């Protein structure tokens, strides 16, 4: 069996997204390459992989075995800077936002001469995670970029960004991968999981963590209004011990509630559609609060399942 796809920095190939690559190549060939590219699309669809692919193109590292290619893979290329959420050592998880202190190194990086005499490239992973101060700091950088500078900014939520920030970027909007590309990326993931992932390899890997369907079964019983017995509470405790257990339950339940809201709307039952949409929104708030404040995972799972059982 093959392992999971390589991390974005190490990927030798981009599956799908050929239209986006073509747009970039045409701009590059024209000699008037835009300085900022906003790569948007669903979570796990390959936005950061594409960003590094384009960065390699500018830095002469498309061949992973070339000197520049090896430096990019190792994270030691002097003309490539990556900004993303950092780990919180106290909580052992990623911080909830990218701060102005995280963004400030971009200014110094771009105003130094390129170490290899060519382009300077910045990849910002998760633009929606920038807090207000960080977003304003990045906006100032985008307003007056130095020559031969390229910024690749990824986001799953373009609608949440500052309009002034979006307006200074050229957008590459990515759709989900087709069936053939999904199977090429993840040949060992079952077809039913690939189908539920809606063209997102990252989501398929996430869903595949529910190897025995334990989380899915728990959510299904809660949605049916069943009161969970002692055996099921033991399962809740087991899920809570898994790193992504709580997130999986929330994801599966959120998808089900959104589907119920959509089905009710199509059927003309607007009150039920509004009710299900409200519950999906409340679920999102509960998930955010639990993750931000490191609440007890087992208790958090019990609370979201109680939300599902409300009918």
UniProtKB/TrEMBL annotation:
Entry-linked InterPro entries: DNA_Rep/Repair_Clamp_Loader, P-loop_NTPase
Top-rank taxon: Bacteria
Name this protein carries in UniProt: DNA polymerase III subunit delta
SUPFAM superfamilies: P-loop containing nucleoside triphosphate hydrolases
